[in-house]
Design a protein that fits this description.
One of its GO terms (biological process) is glycine biosynthetic process, by transamination of glyoxylate. By secondary structure, this protein is α/β, with parallel strands linked by helices. The chain is built from 13 helices and 14 strands.
């Protein structure tokens, strides 16, 4: 029957000229924008800044697979796989492990909004932009925020942290593992134990470090850990893994007030991810299906590569880059090698140069993105990121050649 549909039951044929003719008689006051009548154009770029990084064809292809319903059983399987992939990447057995529908900021807000109630004390280590951001997020939801502040790239000793925990008695302490605005990999050992001793939840940001520098959620007693999709994981921006342990669940599911955000409410999200033990997963929001396909593929690549291999590889390539930078006469912003973030390297702005000019030159002549500082590190550093797929010695060579070229040609200008 369907193959014999009568012509008269189909919409009338539209000649190619028809839309133009119709437009002159249109009731619309806003015409279709000329740009929308041109095809999408996306240039090739070497994304050697702090993110997003280039996405390998295999992950792009996963994201281009046909959409299925976000509540179909096959999608639940894919989400279950993602959960296992995150548990591996975080080295955790936490049941309450999900991917946010949103960028790293969604995970930051989810962590704070769910575990902190208005008026509660929060302690934030600020040594770059990410602590500043978290302090602001906590402040906006009405927490009583205390900060420990150091210059970008500064390291907090466990003694300093314990003193502040004892003084402010926070329900939550935040630390950035991979401080991408400063290029620092902050030590984490022992802090989880201090937080337990002081009845504080330990929240760690690994957006810029996951897959590039070792982190062990369970062994290091981290209560809440999150990351992003677009750095070493190499998936497109827009999803963000996060995990809560039992202590964190205990706090967030016995709270007196509802979290300020409906979208980020973990009681709904845990159901959507099948973590709450209920037989049915109910509609809460429509998850980014293609983004989850891509995230699954990126976690699959990490599982195939192996976490330890991935950490080793990032370190080797970073060390190769660092040596090359020093050979160019450049100074690394983080002096101590062991404290440098392998995924994002910070270079002290060479004396007498205008960093913006260097970056513009590299973009124009090498189609390569590097970036300046962010927040408190602005005017202090140039940042070069070689993460995941981009983390190759030949890419380090390309970055070094571009910088050498820029140093020759942007010589000692106004600054
Ligand atoms: N934390 C860190 C350490 C980051 O580097 C970033 C991204 N640059 C974020 C959080 C925020 O992630 P997003 O931009 O994906 O929201």
């Amino acid at each position: 029957q369907s193959s014999h549909i009568k012509r008269s039951s189909l919409p009338p044929m539209i000649s190619p000229l028809q839309p133009r003719l119709d437009r002159s008689m249109s009731s619309l006051t806003i015409p279709p924008p000329a740009c929308m009548l041109r095809p999408l154009e996306v240039p090739f770029r070497y994304l050697f800044g702090p993110g997003p990084s280039n996405v390998p064809p295999r992950i792009l292809a996963a994201g281009a697979r046909p959409i299925i319903g976000h509540l179909h059983p096959e999608m639940y399987e894919i989400m279950n796989d993602i959960k296992k992939g995150i548990q591996y990447a975080f080295q955790t057995q936490n049941n309450m492990t999900i991917a946010m529908s949103g960028s790293g900021h969604a995970a930051m807000e989810c962590a704070i909004f769910n575990t902190v109630e208005p008026g509660e004390s929060v302690l934030v280590a600020v040594n770059g932009i990410w602590g500043e951001r978290v302090a602001e997020i906590a402040e906006r939801m009405g927490a009583s925020v205390h900060t420990m502040v150091k210059a970008p790239g500064g390291v907090f000793t466990n003694e300093e942290i314990e003193k502040a925990l004892a003084k402010h008695k926070p329900v939550l302490f935040f630390l950035t593992h991979g401080e991408s605005s400063a290029g620092l990999a902050h030590p984490v050992d022992g802090i989880g134990d201090l937080c337990r001793k002081h009845n504080t939840l330990f929240l760690v940001d690994t957006v810029a470090s996951l897959g590039a520098a070792p982190i062990f959620m369970d062994q290091q007693n981290i209560d809440i850990l999150y990351t992003g999709s677009q750095k070493a994981l190499n998936a497109p921006p827009g999803t963000a893994p996060i995990s809560f342990n039992e202590r964190a669940c205990q706090k967030m599911f016995t709270r007196k007030t509802k979290p300020v955000s409906y979208l980020l409410d973990m009681s709904h999200l845990s159901n959507y991810w099948g973590n709450d033990g209920k037989p049915a997963r109910l509609y809460h929001h429509t998850g980014p299906v293609s983004g989850f396909f891509a995230l699954r593929e990126s976690l699959a690549i990490l599982a195939e590569t192996g976490l330890e291999e991935s950490w080793k590889h990032h370190k080797e390539v970073a060390e190769y880059l660092w040596t090359g930078l020093e050979d160019l006469g450049l100074k690394l912003f983080i002096r101590e090698k062991d404290l440098r973030l392998p995924s994002v390297t910070t270079i002290a702005i060479p004396q007498g140069y205008n960093w913006r000019e260097i970056l513009q030159y590299i973009m124009k002549h090498h189609q390569m993105e590097m970036t300046g500082g962010l927040g408190p590190s602005i005017n202090m550093v140039i940042r070069v990121g070689l993460m995941g797929y981009n983390c190759q010695k030949r890419n380090a060579d390309l970055a070094l050649a571009a910088l050498a070229d820029a140093l020759r040609n942007c010589k000692k200008s106004k600054a």
